[in-house]
Design a protein that fits this description.
2 domains, 6-stranded mixed β-barrel, 277 residues, elongated, alpha+beta
Amino acid sequence: MSLPDINDIRATSSTLAAVSPYQWSSKELVAGGKPDRVEGADVTEDFFPLLGIKPLYGRGFTALDMQPGAHVVILGYRLWRERFDADPSAVGKSLLLDDQSQTIVGVMPELPKLDFPTDDEVWTPFVPTEEQRTARENHHLSVLAMLKPHTSAAQAQTELDTIAARLAASYPDADKGWSLHAESLKSDLLGDATTPLLILFGAVGFVLLIACANVSNLFLSRGWARRREFAIRSAIGATRGALLRQQLVESLLVALGGGACAFLIALWTTQGLLSLL
């Protein structure tokens, strides 16, 4: 998208709570006397708060950082660990990015690789050039947005269709033939896992039913073997209710024990899978 179009969406949208443009930017880094080419992104002060990501050390960007001449940078976890020996006091120090001195204001935590700007090694404030501010035909910015409470993605898409039609009519040279599409960040990064998960849960459910049937057969066999015991208890005065309560308590203890073991195994297995991923 172009910045003028983004500003129009900000001004007219009733479904989006925040709209944050960003752009990828490869940079020449010099830190500790060693030059290197690193992947970075220019982001606004809303970018990390929209994702719910807080710095590990220092702070995020503010509106003041979006002004020309701010010269501040946020480091990624890997770069901070390799170039600054994971030293928290790196915040406040300077480095060279594209031959300009930048002050480190924050360090981000270690984040998963998702082919998204959160993968980058440095983040700098998004300070648009004069051309970006005025050139409506310059469709090169990506946008991260958040829905307002009680607003659906379908409602946002309907509104964006209306805005896109209005922009195409108002600025045919720049926006004719262009459309706007809202896509869930989760589905964009991870894909739609609904169908595979439903199949997996269905298979797990059938396995669970088989296990329940096997356990039920074991209880029936055990009950049949104990029929003499039940006959004696009944003969000395035990009611059917008392015998039923006894069976219920025994079954409940087995169920609670099995459930506790299953919960612990699931917890450990999940942590192990997350570590592997």
